[in-house]
């Protein structure tokens, strides 16, 4: 098992390097404990459920190269984007979400500089898309393609 102070193996998937689903579960559980009491972010998550946490873990698992369960069970990329429609996320909320996520990642993910850099790049990239979609008037998102994959070189597809 990878601990926050152990080196990571860069020959496998990014998912394996972060510590797999157990590490992602700890990360997301810890993160949402903070989000739900944050005055700026709590209003965005007024309809929050435990299923949301489960879905985020499954999403990140697939994005980082683990099992493709988000696509198989939850509708893939289109479904994820649809969850953000009409949330009207502000830049201030997006930046705070990123700040909390990256601070949580420092506590929960391995202390590997490249891993943290790539994780931060994904979080920045993904939150900008989520914010953009959150302001769309139409639920017609077109075809966003398959779930993106993120790895040691950043976006791989």
Could you characterize what this model shows?
The chain is mainly alpha-helical. It is built from 7 helices and 2 strands; from the N terminus they run αααααααββ. The chain has a two-stranded antiparallel sheet. It is globular. The two termini are about 30 Å apart. The model has no long low-confidence stretch (mean pLDDT about 90).
What's the helix and strand layout?
Blueprint: H1 14-18, H2 20-35, H3 50-63, H4 69-74, H5 76-82, H6 91-108, H7 113-134, E1 150-151, E2 154-155
Antiparallel strand pairs: 1-2
Helix pairs in contact: 2-3, 2-6, 6-7
Unreliable spans? none
Beta content comes to: under 5%
Strand order of the largest sheet: 1-2
Percentage of residues assigned to helices: 55-70%
With helices defined by DSSP (H or I, 4 residues minimum), what is the helix count?
7
Radius of gyration: 15 Å
- Describe the biggest sheet? 2 strands, antiparallel
Along the chain, the helix and strand elements come as HHHHHHHEE
Distance between the termini: 28 Å
Q: What is the average per-residue confidence, as pLDDT, rounded to a whole number?
A: 88
Total number of beta strands: 2
Shape from CA axes? Answer: globular
- The structural class is mainly alpha
């Amino acid at each position: 098992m990878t601990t926050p102070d152990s080196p990571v193996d860069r020959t496998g998937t990014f998912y394996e390097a972060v510590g797999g689903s157990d590490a992602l579960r700890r990360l997301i559980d810890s993160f949402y404990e903070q989000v739900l009491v944050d005055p700026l972010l709590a209003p965005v998550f007024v309809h929050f459920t435990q299923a949301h946490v489960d879905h985020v873990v499954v999403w990140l698992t697939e994005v980082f190269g683990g099992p493709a369960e988000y696509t198989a069970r939850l509708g893939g990329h289109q479904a994820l984007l649809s969850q953000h429609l009409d949330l009207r996320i502000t830049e201030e909320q997006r930046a705070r979400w990123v700040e909390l996520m990256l601070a949580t990642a420092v506590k929960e993910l391995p202390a590997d500089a490249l891993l943290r850099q790539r994780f931060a790049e994904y979080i920045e990239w993904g939150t900008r898309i989520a914010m953009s979609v959150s302001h769309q008037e139409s639920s017609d998102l077109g075809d966003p393609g398959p779930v993106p994959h993120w790895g040691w070189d950043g976006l791989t597809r």
